[in-house]
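Sample A.
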Amino acid sequence: MSQDTDVLVLGGAGVDTIVYVPELPLPYADSYMIDSGIRTRAGQTGDFVAVGLSALGLRTHHLDTLGDDPEGELVRALHRDKGIPLTAVPQPAGTKRAVNLVGPDGRRLSLYDTSRSHPDDRLPEPTVRALAEASRHVHVSLTHPCAHALPVLRETGVPLSTDLHDWDGENPYHEPFALAADVVFLSATALTDPERTMRRIAERGRAEVVVATAGAEGAHLLTDGELTRIPAVPPPTPVVDSNGAGDAFAAAFLFGRLSGEPPRRCALYGAVAGAHACTVPSTQTDVIGREELLKRVAEAEN
């Protein structure tokens, strides 16, 4: 079958309502005045990965469930504006949504509305198979429909990646994703021993590469049994928001991998893209482009 798509992104479509707060954790008060405004925009993890991949020149397709509601229309509009093909499976419960509280230092607290997604949600198997077989790579989000799609995806033989986000290394929901993917991303935030968790993923699953991002401390890269620390790249302008940094890292890493770059250079791509994302307010979807990424990577290597 002709591979018309570089990366199929599965899941993670939705909207976020962004609220900039004076501090995190937010002390109890009857009310807060939000002078910066409260804004709702399309863009959850799958959307950001898809937008990041497309901005880097990769042919990207996004598949997920969406409701027939205003939130769903925001997601559809984002994909139309960015020129990213979207296959939307009807979701009677509505489009996934969340509220992100963002502090002055860029840290965030996300509140997810779980009523818009259910454990028995499914993506049509023929659709998943057809889109995967037409792709060079599939990136799988953690959202509910995607777990059920993993067996079909593995049958296609298409390489997989996933992002476990702030997995604690124990929650059983994340394990099928961790063990099915060839490339595994996760945050070191909730890990007491990142190396131990990374090696367990590689030993028990199929992962050729495991990357644990650690914010300003850089990232840990495990490949061929060797653990390497990837230094953080200084952001080009002040940090305003960490939302989307992990998605940007994953998109740029996959761009490098699909371009034939070795894992360490792929991780540098990710570090540069993640640093850029931290300079962009959550209310925007301004991701780094291919030319700018390669320019900053060259500067970081010199």
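Sample B, a different protein:
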Amino acid sequence: MPLTPEQLADIDASRQNPQPTLRAVAPGMEQHLYTAQPVLDHGFVRVIDYMGDDAAIVQAARVSYGAGTKKARDDSGLIRYLMRHWHSTPFEMCEIKLHVKLPVFVARQWIRHRTANVNEYSARYSILDREFYIPAPEHLAAQSTVNNQGRGEVLQGAEAARVLEVLKADSARAYDHYEEMLSQEGQAGLARELARMNLPANVYTQWYWKVDLHNLFHFLRLRADAHAQFEIRVYAEAIAEMVKDWVPAAYGAFEDYRMGGVNLSGKAVEVLKRRLAGETVTQEASGMSKGEWREFEGVFG
């Protein structure tokens, strides 16, 4: 169970006590409020609060009040224009606050996105639960031979079983020692802030993460990408589904221009022009590095 009985009771109480409001409400996001979306083996993402919608983006761009006489398709066109030309400020008018439960090593990667407000569960004041991320067999992979940041072939048979056993045994042993070291009920031992240093990076933590839509899109562009590490990508994908329901016009533009689009260097544009003119262009004649050329060919062949 990813949520504690206390958290579930809090969710039930919140959902059973809706309050009237005059603020803008996004019907698609209302269905996600408080509900936990399971991620990995013990993790989850849930929406705690949000502000704004597609109309808030348009309103900020026009610096006007009310719906006015503009039609929905005009609003969508404006949002696409803003996305296409990298006008970020109107997207900052929307914000979302998430409650996330995630492994510590994923949190350390996630926190590199420094444009959010974060408050994490404190192991100085509280005792962490005995919960560890253990990858499913299909996600156990060797180091890639061509990418220093990626994975290669999936481990098979006895090797996969050996690695899984090591992960489980080390996690259990570390937590056993953590419990043994803790000062509890007046007994001698280590303070919580010291005992926690023995825990592995796959132990679960929790935090509240509040971010505006512009910076959330940047997070999703990197972390929901197929090349992102699986363990953070599944969180990004879960959040993306919520954002799609929250601001459908903005998410559609983001999906088209950021996730589905390609940014080209001046050299790449020149190569495309030369190709369209009928010229055969090689990597050596392109002015691009081998890495740039490989990425270029990956898109354009």
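Observation for Sample B: The longest strand covers residues 43-51.
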